[in-house]
Description:
The protein has helices spanning 6-52, 57-65, 69-81, 85-95. The protein has 99 residues and is mainly α. It has one domain. The longest helix is centred in the first third of the chain and has 47 residues, at 6-52.
Amino acid sequence: MPILSNIERRAMEAGRQEGRQEGMQEGMQTGLQQGMLQTARSDVLEVLTVRFNSVPLDLTNRVNQIADIATLKDLHKRAISIGSVAEFEQILDANSPAN
């Protein structure tokens, strides 16, 4: 086994520390993004529940599958003024990637 100099050991430790820092930052960023997505989904479903008293489970599942913040923000705005759950479902159908 080769003998490492103090400089090499310090360099290796600095590299490990830098790697840990980067990993923590990436994890925090991912967690933040997931939290924002979940909040946006909850906001849409909350407005629909307040306006229409209940939201069908299949509609809840569809909203919870959306992974784009901008789409969820748009749906939130529409949920505020939409006339019925059926109209909201039509909007979801129109914005579905399959269409």
